[in-house]
Design brief:
The protein has 15 helices and 19 strands. The protein is an alpha/beta fold. It folds into two domains: 114 residues, Urease, subunit C, domain 1; 294 residues, Metal-dependent hydrolases (TIM Barrel). Helix 8 links the parallel strand 13 and strand 14.
């Protein structure tokens, strides 16, 4: 039995082209039922016991929920603990030891803290890579929140500087991932499984080949890192004789079901390969700047037809999980080398919405406001000094708006936040528990 929700009098971004319309949106059964003027509840469809509610969106922008395609929920407790380091030192000196010290409880709180932050910033879905151990705790925590997520257990079976608690035997890594897949690989669920081998530096040839086979066999998304850092590219080249994307392709890890985070340092041949195989690229501009990794060739990739979406990456390399920052930076950074007309606001907005949906293989369900699609929607106040005048709402959204302008967040027809109050997460409790868990985590690591 479905409840009904009616959004009235909003300025709405409708369809994949985000056309601006002043309209109402009727939601029921977790999806958009109707878009139009002066809508009302369809009494002929209602049954006894069904709830009906109305949201007055006057003065607010209604847009599709934002989708972040590269985050690490498990790292949120490490925020501010790994500053001013480049990628490999950042991993070996801080991130891997901290991940190795996680318990199911600390992982739960880290995930809840991340989801709370993302909901408050208008993100309604995320593709996330967790750590090696206790990933079940993340699945269960996220499921309770009503947030939409594709979650993967991090897979690592080789690598210098990897703590013993993170270095797995190949079979054990595969077995645990398969166990999680069997429980969570449900395309109708808000929380779904993906394979998440960390990157070529910490995964054996055998592991990557087997992940490639299993992903195709089970129609499962693969989420990994590639070509983020020059030292990383050099390590892969020295070990395999190939550059990163070339190597992943050789083991079967390219294609429409594969999502590669970063792709900052690519050869001409690798760019062609990404386009030819329809492999998705996950752009994380803040993280690439903070870790001094470089600026990804996003405009070049887009021109070739590569689907590029956005993510904040982890809290310790950003240090926020804010899609507004990523949209703005993605647009501004490309103008430095490609001119002022490069990557306009509408393209950045698409990267954060419909392109993210394509990455997840859910472009028919998510990423735009259309009748029949899932009701993952965000209401944003654009009547503040820093967003006035909003003569071009998409420009205002990308270049002027901030996460704190988000008023209401709806996922699958369920209101998760309204008036900036979270309903599915006890924000104060999670913040206090996060402080406590962080102290215990540091004590276990010796920081």
């Amino acid at each position: 039995m479905s409840d009904f929700l009616l959004i009235k009098n909003g300025t709405c971004l409708i369809g994949e082209e985000a056309e601006v319309q002043n309209c109402d949106i009727l939601i029921g059964d977790g999806q958009v039922l109707e878009i139009g003027d002066s809508l009302s509840f369809p009494t002929f469809k209602m049954s006894s016991g069904q709830a009906v509610s109305t949201i007055n969106a006057t003065g607010m922008l209604v847009c599709p929920g934002f989708i972040q395609t590269h985050v690490h929920l498990c790292q949120t407790l490490f925020r501010g603990s790994a500053d001013d380091l480049e990628l490999l030192d950042w991993l070996r000196k801080r991130i891997w030891p901290l991940e190795a010290a996680h318990t199911p409880q600390s992982l739960t709180i880290s995930a809840l803290l991340a989801v709370a932050e993302m909901i408050k910033g208008g993100t309604t879905a995320a593709l996330t890579m967790e750590t090696v151990n206790h990933t079940e705790a993340v699945f269960e925590a996220v499921q309770r929140t009503g947030f939409r997520a594709f979650i993967g257990k991090c897979m690592m079976d080789v690598g210098d500087g990897v703590p013993e608690a993170l270095k797995e035997r190949t079979k054990e890594s595969l077995d645990e991932s398969l166990r999680l897949m069997k429980r969570w690989n449900n395309r109708e669920s808000l929380v779904q499984f993906c394979f998440a081998p960390r990157f070529a530096v910490s995964c054996s040839h055998e592991l990557l080949q087997e992940v490639a086979r299993l992903a195709l066999e089970n129609s499962v998304l693969v989420h990994t890192h590639a070509s983020e850092n020059l030292r990383e590219v050099e390590l892969v080249l020295n070990r395999t004789g190939m550059r990163n994307v070339d190597y992943l392709h050789s083991v079967g890890l390219t294609g429409n079901h594969v999502a590669l985070a970063h792709c900052v340092h690519l050869s001409e041949e690798e760019k062609q390969l990404l386009a030819a195989t329809k492999t998705h690229v996950l752009h994380c501009p803040s993280s690439n700047l903070k870790l001094a990794s470089g600026i990804a060739p996003v405009c070049d990739l887009l021109k070739r037809g590569v689907n590029v979406s956005l993510g904040a990456d982890g809290a310790p390399c950003n240090n926020r999980l804010d899609i507004f920052t990523e949209m703005r930076l993605a647009a501004l950074l490309q103008k430095v080398s490609n001119g002022s007309e490069a990557l306009p606001a509408k393209v950045a907005f698409k990267m954060a919405t419909i392109a993210g949906a394509r990455t997840l293989g859910m472009e028919k369900q998510l990423g735009s406001i259309e009748v029949g699609k899932k009701a993952d929607l965000v209401l944003i106040k654009l009547n503040k000094p820093h967003t006035t005048p909003a003569s071009d709402v998409i420009s205002t959204l990308v270049y002027s708006a901030t996460a704190s302008d988000v008023d209401t967040v709806i996922v699958n027809g369920r209101v998760l936040m309204q008036g900036r109050q979270l309903f599915s997460i006890d924000e104060e409790k999670v913040v206090n528990l996060a402080k406590s868990e962080f102290k215990q985590l540091c004590a276990r690591v010796g920081l």
